[in-house]
Design a protein that fits this description.
The complex is a heterodimer of chains A (306) and B (325). Chain A is 29% helix and 22% strand. With 306 residues, chain A is an alpha+beta fold. In chain A, β3, α1 and β4 form a beta-alpha-beta unit. In chain A, α1 packs parallel to α2 and α4 crosses α5. The mean pLDDT of chain A is 97. Chain A is built from six helices and eleven strands. Chain A has a four-stranded mixed sheet with strand order 1-9-10-11. Helices cover 26% and strands 22% of the residues of chain B. The chains are: A alpha+beta (306), B alpha+beta (325). At the A-B interface, α6 of A face α11 of B.
């Protein structure tokens, strides 16, 4: 096995603008990006959950900082922990605006109103009830707009993600081949925003970790300095036939101190421990430490018998 | 890749004529899975490609009891790997075909092309004016040579990359080659050339020659065969080392057989002396282990590929044990 510690708490500045249209649809704009990690998905999820409206009413627009508010670049496990709080803040501000507007329209004190499933109703008069789209229209608005912000990180703390991966391997001591049978990956990354995209990220990171441990090597001819692995068949990467079973375990809940979402990033953590876990498993199997990556059959045979 | 003229002959004679007598001018094109790569790497720059796929009767498989199997050179690797007769009577060939590349490449790649493909050496395919391309030195000798040959090399140290060639060498197959006026038959064991004879070609073909068919003789009743390939990943990789074995076994005794190795030499490497020891050998784990240890006795490894000798020995043992079951 091998462990990892990485940062991943995110940071301000990061902003998200939320627009509630008078037909009840929502647009969230953010200068962030989706690299395939599911930014579009979690932003829509958060808006949907806080405003209690179906997710298919939500459109997310990313990327263009001319029209969307600032958000950090995607790297260093930054996006989810920086952007999710801004989206939540924008959605909660929208909810507050709607409650205030509804109080005036329904001639009821705010504290007598309840917000549920996109409808604001009076607790004391069941005839007084209004869906949020109608609140917008009755306020004589076409669009309501709020912009949320990522707050400051807690003073006096460093935020880290923590993880460990366990590798089960089989080493054929006659051919030197290493087969990864299973990887179990456990993480403390605060709140899980979307289990599926999180597991996908770990699957991808693990496969890259296996690739790093067992296959990838940029080979240079020492006399001429020219690269010899100039294509995808000399520079080897895993195929579906190299994929082990991968189990993902999350040991954390929402971090109580970090932000209003308690989310930490899992971008890099997915790949960090894999090669170390595999190398340690190989040592456990054959009693030889191989530290030079990639651990290819020739290296295993040479280590065992030369 | 430079522009080229694409010629579509309708008969073998037309194809031979179109090919002319200079590989710099015209090259034969079947599946193209190796040729197009050579052209994109700048190793081949013909003015013309002569398409063979429209030629009639080069894509058939036929079998006659007592005579053996005849496979047209344009038959795809997928067809060979899935053909019930080949799986039953010549499993070494079906297994070797199945080990080639990936499904997409096997669907398009032909057996003729697989046998005639050029080496994968990263100096040959790269920006190096090496011996095989008419230059002055072999860069692998003092360079990065973990994949290069351990026997039969010098002054060039390529390995032959074909899986099916190793299987066919074990099967003592023959190639039928058309050279314009007539066809001739060449045993595959004489088809490939060592660098000491000719550094710039891997086989005896001359410009204009077209391999039209492969003939595999009938095997004795008590035959078993198989192919084992070691790759650095689970699929889609050339052999680090491979083994083809054809043996005849009666009861618990081996009568005869052939071992051929890939990934160790510039040609499919027959371990003739080793194979001779099958006669009357006990089919036991002990005897097989002893036999395997004698493989590649005369190997002369380079700085980074000595592991291949032990690997080949272990793979011979593995495959033989598997075939004895």
């Amino acid at each position: 096995m091998a462990t990892q510690i990485w940062w991943g708490g995110g940071a301000p500045p990061a902003y998200a603008t939320l627009k509630l249209n008078r037909d009840g649809s929502v647009t969230v704009l953010c200068g962030s990006q989706d690299l395939g990690t599911g930014t579009y998905t979690f932003i829509a999820q958060i808006a949907s959950e806080i405003l209690e409206i179906p997710i298919d009413k939500i459109q997310v627009i990313l990327g263009d900082t001319a029209t969307c508010p600032y958000a950090p670049s995607s790297g260093g496990s930054m996006t989810a922990p920086s952007v999710s709080p801004a989206v939540r803040d924008a959605a909660e501000q929208m909810k507050a605006k709607l409650m205030s507007g509804a109080a005036a329209i329904l001639e009821t004190e705010e504290k007598q109103l309840v917000y549920s499933k996109g409808i604001i109703s009076s607790k004391i008069d069941e005839k007084k009830s209004m869906p949020i789209a109608d609140v917008v229209r009755r306020m004589r608005e076409r669009v309501l707009v709020t912009t949320g912000a990522r707050g400051a990180n807690p003073q006096g703390y460093t935020t880290n993600s923590f993880g460990a991966q366990f590798a089960e391997v089989a080493v054929d001591t006659e051919t030197g081949q290493v087969k990864v049978i299973k990887i179990v990956a456990a993480y403390d990354i605060g709140r899980v925003l979307n289990r599926k995209t999180l597991e996908n990220q770990v699957h991808g990171g693990v496969m890259q970790g296996i690739s790093f441990a067992l296959m990838e090597e940029r080979i240079i001819d020492e006399y001429t300095g020219k690269v010899l692995t100039t294509n995808m068949h000399n520079y080897k990467m895993p195929t579906i036939m190299d994929t082990p079973g991968i189990e993902v375990i999350i040991v954390s809940d929402a971090d109580p101190l970090l932000s209003n979402t308690g989310v930490k990033g899992v971008g890099e953590p997915a790949i960090i421990p894999t090669a170390g876990a595999i190398a340690n498993a190989i040592y456990n199997a054959i009693g030889v430490r191989l530290k030079n990556l990639p651990i290819t059959p020739d290296k295993v045979l040479t280590a065992l018998y030369a | 890749m430079n522009n080229f003229e694409y010629i579509q002959p309708k008969t073998l004679k037309e194809a031979n004529k179109a090919l002319g007598n200079d590989w710099n001018i015209a090259l034969p094109y079947a599946g193209g899975t190796d040729l197009l790569g050579l052209m994109k790497d700048g190793v081949a720059s013909p003015d013309k490609l002569v398409n063979l796929k429209a030629l009639p009767d080069l894509n058939k498989i036929s079998y006659a009891t007592g005579k053996g199997l005849t496979i047209g050179s344009l038959v795809t690797l997928t067809e060979i790997s899935e053909h019930p007769l080949i799986e039953e009577k010549y499993p070494v060939l079906a297994e070797a075909a199945k080990e080639v590349a990936s499904p997409q490449l096997r669907n398009v790649g032909t057996i003729g092309g697989n046998i005639c493909q050029r080496p994968r050496c990263w100096y040959f395919r790269g920006d190096f004016n090496c011996l095989r391309k008419g230059g002055d030195i072999c860069y692998a000798v003092d360079g990065r040579n973990k994949f290069h040959c351990v026997i039969g090399g010098a002054p060039c140290f390529i390995v032959h990359p074909s899986d099916t060639a190793v299987a066919l060498a074990a099967l003592d197959a023959q190639l039928i080659i058309f050279s314009g006026k007539k066809s001739r038959t060449v045993p595959i064991r004489q088809f490939f050339v060592l660098p000491e004879s000719n550094m710039e070609r891997e086989n005896i073909l001359l410009p204009g020659d077209i391999v039209t068919a492969i003939h595999i003789p009938e095997l004795p009743e008590n035959s078993r065969s198989g192919y084992l390939k070691l790759k650095e990943r689970g699929a889609w990789d050339f052999a680090v080392v491979s083994v083809a074995v054809v043996v005849q076994k009666t009861g618990s005794t081996l009568k005869s057989g052939t071992i051929a190795l890939g990934g160790v030499a510039p040609i499919p490497w027959l371990e003739q002396e080793l194979s001779a020891q099958f006669a009357g050998m006990d089919a036991s784990e002990y005897a097989i282990a002893n036999l395997s240890k004698k493989a590649l006795q005369k190997a002369e490894p380079l700085a980074q590929n000595a592991y291949k000798v032990l690997l080949a020995q272990n793979m011979i043992k593995k495959l033989l044990l598997k075939l004895m079951a």
